[in-house]
């Protein structure tokens, strides 16, 4: 049976639906799964084991036979814990066929086939006899975890608020203001889940204390009706209430003596005790509007939820937030932050000032970019902008109208290859600009769509036309991850159980066709140390058209930092002019101890080594790379290896 898989296509800037075998979809799901992350989460596993032991003991104390239903059994780990704790029988429910097969193999390998039955169905489709212990509802049953409790704290944070609203931009003696509709828009109730531990306490000011919002008792039936809960508090520090930081704890037993907490690292008195995990993270919610508050003021934080969303407000109005300005539907949270980055904006403005002339005819190629507006405000004769999306076109139209420059930029809902001289009012392009940014881009090199557009527009360029950026350089860096390595590392044994069949399944999927690829990650959330110097491996010259032949780059780099090389980080740097460069990766030089500071706006590419390699830092161990850019697909094939002395 065939299946359709969506893939970013840098040659078209779109998402292609490619027909693949059924096995391809499975292998991609397995290769990118978080099973290893959960199994490496020692705190989670220990707390589950303690909770399961306690629950089994309570049922036995009642003189009952212990029958367990493990919903979403995964590897079967919790089922094996339950049987080891004394359960009489366990049903492990797993809807994902490859995982159910692996679970059955793991159960057999550990000698539990007579006590555990793995069922490959959705939990809502399963009918079993009486059970009295649920792992992960039924009145009278024990549940592990027993309860979840949601916590929230209102804070002021210019850093985080920049992910929700666009700030005014100073362009010489003029100011570009965001439309009133955007400033008044409540946004969307979608959660922004991040590694909150990487947002330092210096980046926000608490407005009030940490509030306990509500709890969910998993041993009871849960209503699907919309609900709200409020918590009154006194303002501790005056300022602007903008953002709600939220996380939750799991009580594994009714008494709350066994707790698995999702609190961020900076809440721990001893940071070394913080249990890192990527499968359960913290959340950031944005209040519908920022509100000025005074110290000592009495406030009430209310959380609302329905079947699909959860949102916060400082009043008791339960209206579900809805984006009315389109912006929050078009731009992601990191994109808001990118557009609000004044240092980045200043780089683009400086570059534009250096190339624009009073007779410049400027064409912008990016999704929902402010660059064409800047070009008009800086005095270009005519400015055009290609907008592939009708929604991004409407967003830019709002900016133009709000700043009384409606006719300053002509927005063209047309693809580069379809553009004609008539669309440009019989002008020829003297300055082609782009950030470049495209909403379909996942990996750093997907933004090379700008290069393909430049190639399609060659016939409409003036001789000697300026291309901004003039080129892009792909960089790579060998790194040791502090924690991210866990999501791809084999587990072997977990809490004394052999889970190697899962390791083998994941490895088979990683070895499957095209599964050994770089994957996108926001590396600002995942600390790492550099083991080499940043190295430029490939340059793309936008002054020229996309070549017909592949571009290859091979080389060897010494590992000059000591540590364990888990893989490689890759990112793009755009050369706007000869002396102005914007990095989508490292934003500062690598520190003396290999510390890395990453751009929070774009995802970097990460290529994990199948087997990490140790480096003494003396340069004797080296990294070998082989990269090939394929013009026909816009993709980059890569292979890395570590050469030991």
Furnish the topology, listing elements before pairings:
Elements: E1 2-9, E2 14-21, H1 22-31, H2 35-39, H3 42-61, E3 67-71, H4 77-84, E4 89-93, H5 97-109, E5 116-119, E6 133-135, E7 142-144, E8 147-156, H6 158-161, E9 169-171, E10 174-176, H7 180-184, E11 192-194, E12 205-206, E13 211-217, E14 227-234, E15 239-251, E16 259-261, E17 282-293, E18 298-305, E19 310-313, H8 327-330, H9 333-339, H10 342-355, E20 361-365, H11 371-377, E21 382-386, H12 390-402, E22 410-412, E23 429-433, H13 449-456, E24 461-468, E25 471-481, E26 493-494, E27 497-498, H14 500-511, E28 519-521, E29 528-530, E30 535-541, E31 551-558, E32 562-575, E33 581-583, E34 604-616, E35 622-630, E36 635-643
What does this protein structure show overall?
This protein has 645 residues and is of the alpha+beta class. 20% of the residues lie in helices and 34% in strands. The strands form nine sheets. Strands 8, 11, 12, 13, 15, 16 and 17 form a seven-stranded antiparallel sheet that branches. Strands 25, 28, 29, 30, 32, 33 and 34 form a seven-stranded antiparallel sheet that branches. Helix 1 (22-31) packs across helix 14 (500-511) and helix 5 (97-109) runs antiparallel to helix 14. The protein is globular and about 90 Å long.
Strand content: 25-35%
Overall SS class: alpha+beta
First-last Cα distance: 48 Å
Please give the radius of gyration in angstroms: 27 Å
Q: Number of helical segments?
A: 14
What form results from the Cα inertia axes?
globular
Share of helix, binned: 10-25%
Largest sheet: 7 strands, antiparallel
Q: Extract low-pLDDT stretches.
A: none
The beta-strand count equals 36
Output mean pLDDT. 92
């Amino acid at each position: 049976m065939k299946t359709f898989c969506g893939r970013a296509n840098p040659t078209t800037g779109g998402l292609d639906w490619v027909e693949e075998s059924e096995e391809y979809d499975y292998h991609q799901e397995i290769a990118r799964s978080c099973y290893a992350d959960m199994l490496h989460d020692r705190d989670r596993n220990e707390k589950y084991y303690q909770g399961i032991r306690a629950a089994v003991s309570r049922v036995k104390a009642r003189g009952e036979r212990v029958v367990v239903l493990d919903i979403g059994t995964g590897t079967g780990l919790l089922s094996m814990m339950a049987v080891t704790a004394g359960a009489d029988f366990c049903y492990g429910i797993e809807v994902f066929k490859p995982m159910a097969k692996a679970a059955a193999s793991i159960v057999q390998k550990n000698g539990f086939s007579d006590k555990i039955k793995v069922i490959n169905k959705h939990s809502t489709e399963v009918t079993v006899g009486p059970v009295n212990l649920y792992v992960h509802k039924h009145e009278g049953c024990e549940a592990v975890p027993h309860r979840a409790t949601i916590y929230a704290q209102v804070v002021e944070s210019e850093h985080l608020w920049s992910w929700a609203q666009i700030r005014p931009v100073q362009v010489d003696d003029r100011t570009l203001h965001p439309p009133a509709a955007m400033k008044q828009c409540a946004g969307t109730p979608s959660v922004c889940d991040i590694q909150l531990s990487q947002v330092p306490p210096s980046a926000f000011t608490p407005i009030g204390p940490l509030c306990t919002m509500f709890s969910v008792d998993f041993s009871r039936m849960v209503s699907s009706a919309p609900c709200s809960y409020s918590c009154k508090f006194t303002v501790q520090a005056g300022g602007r209430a903008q953002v709600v930081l939220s996380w939750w704890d799991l009580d594994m037993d009714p008494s709350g003596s066994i707790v698995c907490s999702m609190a961020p690292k900076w809440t721990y008195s001893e940071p070394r005790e913080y249990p890192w995990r990527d499968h359960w993270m913290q959340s950031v919610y944005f209040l519908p509007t920022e509100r000025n508050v005074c110290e000592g003021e009495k406030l009430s934080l209310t959380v609302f939820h329905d079947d699909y969303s959860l949102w916060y407000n400082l009043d008791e109005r339960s209206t579900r937030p809805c984006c009315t300005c389109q912006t929050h539907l078009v731009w992601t949270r990191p994109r808001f932050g990118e557009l609000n980055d004044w240092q980045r904006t200043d780089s683009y403005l400086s570059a534009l000032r250096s190339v624009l002339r009073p007779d410049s005819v400027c064409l912008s190629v990016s999704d929902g970019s402010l660059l064409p507006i800047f070009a008009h405000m800086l005095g270009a004769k005519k400015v055009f902008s290609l907008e592939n999306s009708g929604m991004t076109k409407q967003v830019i139209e709002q900016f133009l109208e709000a700043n009384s420059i409606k006719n300053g930029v002509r927005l063209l809902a047309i693809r580069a290859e379809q553009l004609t001289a008539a669309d440009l009012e019989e002008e020829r392009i003297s300055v082609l600009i782009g950030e470049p940014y495209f909403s379909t881009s996942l990996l750093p090199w997907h933004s090379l769509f700008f290069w393909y557009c430049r190639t399609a527009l060659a016939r409409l360029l003036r001789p000697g036309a300026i291309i901004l950026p003039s080129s892009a350089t792909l960089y790579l860096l060998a790194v040791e991850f502090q924690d991210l390595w866990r999501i791809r590392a084999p587990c072997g044994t977990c809490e004394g159980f052999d889970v190697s069949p899962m390791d083998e399944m994941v490895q088979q999927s990683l070895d499957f066709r095209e599964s050994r690829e770089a994957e996108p990650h926001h590396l600002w959330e995942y600390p790492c140390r550099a083991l080499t110097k940043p190295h430029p491996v490939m340059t793309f010259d936008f002054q020229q058209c996309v070549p017909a032949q592949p571009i290859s780059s091979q080389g060897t780099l010494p590992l000059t930092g000591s540590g364990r090389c888990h893989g490689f980080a890759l990112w793009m740097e755009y050369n706007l002019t000869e002396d102005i460069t914007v990095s989508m990766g490292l934003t500062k030089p690598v520190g003396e101890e290999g510390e890395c500071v990453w751009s929070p706006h774009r995802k970097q590419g990460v290529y994990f080594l199948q087997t990490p390699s140790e480096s003494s830092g003396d340069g004797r161990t080296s990294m070998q790379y082989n990269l090939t850019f394929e013009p026909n697909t816009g993709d980059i094939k890569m292979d890395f290896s570590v050469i030991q002395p």
